[in-house]
Amino acid sequence: MSQDARRDEEQSTMKRAQILGLPYIDTSQMQNKQIYNDLLPKEELYSLRVIPLVVDKGNISFGITNTTSQQTMVTLRNRYLDQQLTFSLISDNGYRDYMRLYDPPKEVIYQDINITNAGTEDLIKNVSATLEQVRANDMLAYLVHQAHKLAASDIHIENQRGDVRIRFRIDGVLHPIARISHEKNRMLLSAIASAGNVSTSDPDSQQGHIAQKVQMANGEQVDVNVRLETVPAINGMDIVMRLFNMSQDMYSLDKLMLNPSERKVVDEIISKPTGLVLAVGPTGSGKTTTLYSILNSLNTEERKIITIEDPVEYQFAGITQISVTSKTGDQTNFANKLRAVLRLDPDIVMVGEIRDLDTAKTALQASLTGHLVLSTFHAGSAAAALTRMMDVIGENPLFVSAIRMVMAQRLVRKLDDTTKQAAPATPEEIAHIQKIVDTLPEGTEKPSLQNLQLYKPVKTADNPYGYKGQVPLREQFLMTGEIEKLLQSGNKMISVRNIEDAAIKSGMMTMQQSGILQVLAGQTTLEEVSRVIG
Fold it and tell me: Residue 42, Cα to own-chain centre: how many angstroms?
């Protein structure tokens, strides 16, 4: 508590004492506080809400708080009939300071979570015990700190009937970390809700953002920068916290693992920044990271860049970023903000997500008037993104001219290079791979499958999963060639398959083909590709 806040509390307590007709003592000004362990056990000090301030042979001076009952004072007078008792009002913080002398806080050992023990019963037991004995803000800071050390993408807090489960998503897979009581979770939820400006009693799902520094009880300072997603479930409010602490140099095209053909396309768009670029995929597939990396490469003194985000996930120097909060029943915020932003004469605009018809139309029109518009869109594939967009905006002659590129992506776990081992591929694996290799676009060098060896994960004490990190699987196309002809044909019954076939004829590599090439390169496994994209 700051000195100003403590001073305000003491003044408030003094006024309260005057109203009650009681003496008042500012315990923050008392030097060399004495403790009297033989007078009352600490359990009674807690239950009665009293503190012995001064004790001698014939007198006892007690400090009481606003919540100390009249019956308590009567009980104490009857207990110490041979002594003169006086009662003075003290502040709640004064009482807590004294109680720390009678009941010093136990040293909390914050156990580090690492990849070798994530998900184990011993870890869950130890972390759960730690969380049960620390204050709410420290719980939040500890979980975020450990999640960052493990390179986790998000923290899941899930209410179940008997307890509350906490899990980290590491390399796309969830691992149990702790189980806490519902009572302790209410404290954690209260701290999260207060910091993220969400309500603990709202019957609807909510979004929030926490960006603050928290100093834990052990003195360690933690940057807490997370996006909140909450939803009421039958056993309580579930929360997912997505982590955002990254430095600006993390958002680089060189770190996106683009293959040469993908990088060539992105570089071409950067060299002529106009049109609409869509990054599509499910939550957690790296869409925003891709767009941020493109933005970072475009961020020069000659360009004005504005983003509209819900919320702003990372703050970039040199870019104007606008945070939009979407409330229930109001889907127009993005479109209204986008129209306002276009009046500010930007060169490049990023819209966090196209969610509705109004935003889609405004983004299309902006991309036709010399702007580069970047946005994300929820779709399973690049082809599905076009059909979904057509469903949103209907027949629109601007459509083909506006969209410049669609990129879909997923993330798969990467094999641990220090432990992976090669083994001969089975006839079934070879047949499956050959079927996909045969469909690679013309001009792509088709790998030989003779004497094929595939790498497999090896579980060790240091890495019980055999994977470390993630690699992206992408498919992308430009609005040219066969796709452009198809969309300009006037056919009103265009399907995802039609668009995908046209894109493949124009040279697009599918995510499945990208996945197989990553398998052949020893970066991941067939099982992992199948888990992520089917």
Answer: 41
Question: Residues with Cβ < 8 Å from 314, sequence gap 6 or more?
Answer: 244, 246, 248, 251, 292
| C-beta of residue 355 within 8 angstroms of C-beta of residue 378 | no
| Torsional sign, CA 201, 204, 205, 206 | negative
| Cβ(433)–Cβ(447) below 8 Å | no
User: What's the predicted TM-score (pTM) here?
Assistant: 0.69
Q: What's the Cα-to-Cα distance from 167 to each of 11, 145, 223, 238, 241, rounded to whole Å?
A: 45, 14, 20, 12, 11
CA distance 361 to 214: 42
Q: How confident is the model at residue 328 (pLDDT cuts 50, 70, 90)?
A: very low
Tokens of residue 200, six digits: 């603990």
Which tens digits make up the pLDDT trace of 261-295?
A: 889 989 988 888 889 999 998 888 888 889 999 99
C-alpha 36/C-alpha 432 separation (Å) is 79
pLDDT digits (tens, 9 = 90+) for 90-137: 998 889 888 888 887 655 555 565 555 555 777 788 888 888 877 788
d(C-alpha 267, C-alpha 386), whole Å? 22
Helices (H), 343-426: 357-367, 382-393, 398-402
* The token pair that represents 406 in the structure block: 């669609």
